[in-house]
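Continuing the series of single-chain predictions for the mutant panel. This is the parent chain; the variants come on the following pages.
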Amino acid sequence: MTPELHIVVTYMDYGKMISDSYEYAKDGLTKNLKTWIMLIVLTLLPAIPFILILILMLPSLMAYTEAEIPASVIGTLIIGFVIAFIMAIILGAFSMGYLLRILRGEVPLPEVTGFGRMFVDGIKLLVIEVIYLIPVLIILAVTAGAAFFSALPILMEMPAEPDFEALMPVLMPILGGVIAGILIAVIVAIILWLLAVTGVVRFARTGKIGEAFNFSAILATIGKIGWGSYILALIIVVVIVAVIQVILSFIPYIGAILQILISPAIMVFMHRYICILYDSAGNPADSSFSSTA
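Parent structure:
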């Protein structure tokens, strides 16, 4: 017997997904202002280390002109910003952990409680994101290294006043290699992002980091949704968020304040949207996984 080929075409109501996500965010925040305020605080937490570094270093910097700043002060400033960057990532774990609750399918919008659990979940999510980034970082590192070592002999022999026009035939292959490497990194990043979106929801639902890399299950879920529908759904939410951010950035003076106030709503909307997208594959939220600390 000849096996039958069943092709499932998934119809996705993007308008309903958008309206459901909007109502979820609106009701969850406007009916519980405490949650909204707490989410604003969590959003601002990563900025605190940078503010502290600036406050601590500003008196030292103001004592010098731009040309007089000693290398030791510049070095201290760089180290300070590196430490601030690391601290900002760690503090961002609280909001990341909270957003996982939305991906679990909790309705209505959960209150901001259980900070210990939020932090631990956020750190786990951070580890997942770093692992997903590794292939992209490797490609970029190999590209940069190959470009550097290819150009090094040319740079070593370059005269004090080089003729760049004459060097262009030699440098063009190196530049072409760099562009090709960056393009490959971008393509790989997009592919990994498509997988990571579903992988992170799997982690949120199971609490197991390994499920974020269960590629057979991830591909099966995306296959049930339909690759075209899945990609289009993600493009839609990215465009919506980008348009809102661009509009706010063009509003003078109060635009930055509005971004701070609205950022929790945007985050809630986006993660609820992804939750609905994941559930459209027939993967309802598992209420057995507790999100409380």
